[in-house]
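User: Here's a structure from my thesis project, written as structure tokens. My advisor, Dr. K., wants to see whether a designed sequence matches the one we expressed. Can you design one independently, without my sequence as a hint?
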């Protein structure tokens, strides 16, 4: 299996910038974007995000599944972010079991690749008031646990500071 680096944190904590920093020194980098422009504000965010990436990054937009990245040739990939990916799957009617199975399948397909995966840590807040929000928090929490278990390194971002919570710094 390839090397997995998992970056968790709250909104605007610096996850994406840190992922880019980790990948910049690599060659043949793929940036797998999961966000879709649903309104003008989201379009603006996506454009700003695109402009922040180095020019040598190859970008693919994930339409259906994470395994789409394997259609491209790369040595290192950034998947940004699982939060949006899982939310999209849920909004399209995928069950928790279907989402977890897809993540499991994806993780078995990683061979000789370095994958940097970005996700939000959603378990630190209050219990959401509505059922869909609670379900989303639960599903993303399960996905995050599954990925962190198989990751070589896990970072928690807070206020732009990466805190290594699994793995060794110089590996």
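Assistant: Designed independently from the structure alone:
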């Amino acid at each position: 299996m390839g090397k997995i680096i998992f970056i968790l944190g709250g909104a605007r904590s610096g996850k994406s910038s840190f992922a880019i920093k980790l990948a910049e020194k690599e060659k043949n980098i793929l940036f797998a974007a999961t966000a879709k422009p649903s309104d003008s504000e989201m379009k603006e965010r996506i454009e700003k995000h695109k402009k922040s990436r180095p020019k040598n990054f190859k970008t693919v937009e994930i339409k259906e599944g994470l395994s789409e990245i394997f259609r491209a040739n790369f040595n290192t990939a950034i998947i940004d972010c699982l939060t949006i990916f899982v939310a999209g799957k849920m909004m399209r009617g995928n069950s928790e079991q279907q989402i977890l199975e897809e993540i499991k399948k994806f993780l078995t397909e990683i061979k000789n690749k370095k994958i940097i995966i970005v996700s939000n840590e959603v378990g630190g807040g209050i219990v959401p008031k509505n059922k869909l929000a609670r379900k989303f928090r639960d599903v993303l929490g399960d996905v995050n646990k599954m990925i962190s278990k198989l990751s070589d390194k896990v970072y928690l971002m807070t206020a732009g500071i990466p805190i290594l919570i699994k793995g060794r710094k110089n590996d």
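When you compare it with your expressed construct, this may help: Residues 131-150 form the longest helix (20 residues).
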